[in-house]
Amino acid sequence: MARSAPYQPLLLRILHGVSGILAVGAFFTGFLVYNTFDGRFGKLPIPKFDPIQDLHGTLALCFLLLFPALAIYSFHAGKKRLIQPDSFQQLTQLGRPIWWVSLQRLANTLMLVASIFALVSGRMMKEEWLPTGELDHIWYYFHLLAWLVIGFCLAIHILMSAKVGGAPLLLSMFSWRFIPEDSPMVWYSRLQAWLINWNQNFPELISQWKNRYLFIKIVEGFVIFGVVAAFLLPVFFAAD
């Protein structure tokens, strides 16, 4: 029997779609930057495209601007898609359906961490390093490592989505259909209602956060710190 397409929240689809396009674009242009200016660990015979570094930087900057919203959604409304208290134990159940789900959750969580490393290290790099052959800077090596991890996690994310949900799940992320209560027309009123009841909602939010899995709280704190660092470090500290 064919599986029906699951409904995905519209905000998730928008954040996932836009950030996914930017992340994949930055990933492939990042490889082209490496292929053009480095190539020490292997390269492809691809014609050089001199503005590739500027294109990579533009995509990465757009991803940085969107990343805070993606992170907030991931750690709260999308928390079930991240690592859970029993995920490491479930990873021992090799080959079972829960193993595939847990592997995807681990990859999703690791991808958020790797994105922070990529964003911070990229922000701390100077444009002239690679074109002038300055390849031994620590920030560049951090950037390369983050690039590898993101690529690995992206592959797992896509493969596990196909394995767990099949074509219906993949197609549901590209659907523009939404239910009335998920309409963008009600987003502002829902936010306004939440803010009006701030005195009740904020303590509840804090209580929920305290009861969350310690590991994911550490990851969330690291990601928040990393976002702030990505914006502020280049302002106050010049890379060597």
TrEMBL record:
A single GO BP term for this record reads: respiratory electron transport chain
Task: Spell out the GO cellular component terms annotated for this protein, sorted alphabetically and separated by semicolons.
Answer: plasma membrane
Q: Is ATP-binding found in the keyword set?
A: no
Q: State the Gene3D superfamilies in the record.
A: Transmembrane di-heme cytochromes, Chain C (1.20.950.20)
Q: Which InterPro entries match?
A: Cyt_b561_bac/Ni-Hgenase (IPR011577), Di-haem_cyt_TM (IPR016174)
Cytochrome b561 bacterial/Ni-hydrogenase domain residues are 8-175
Q: How does it sit in the membrane?
A: Multi-pass membrane protein
Which keywords does this Swiss-Prot/TrEMBL entry list? Answer: Cell membrane, Membrane, Transmembrane, Transmembrane helix
Q: What is its main location?
A: membrane
Does the entry feature the keyword Coiled coil, yes or no?
A: no
Q: Where in the cell is it found?
A: Cell membrane
* TM segment ranges: 12-37, 57-77, 98-120, 140-160, 214-237
One of the entry's Gene Ontology molecular-function terms is:
electron transfer activity
- Among the Pfam families in the record, one is Ni_hydr_CYTB
Q: What is this protein called?
A: Cytochrome b561 bacterial/Ni-hydrogenase domain-containing protein
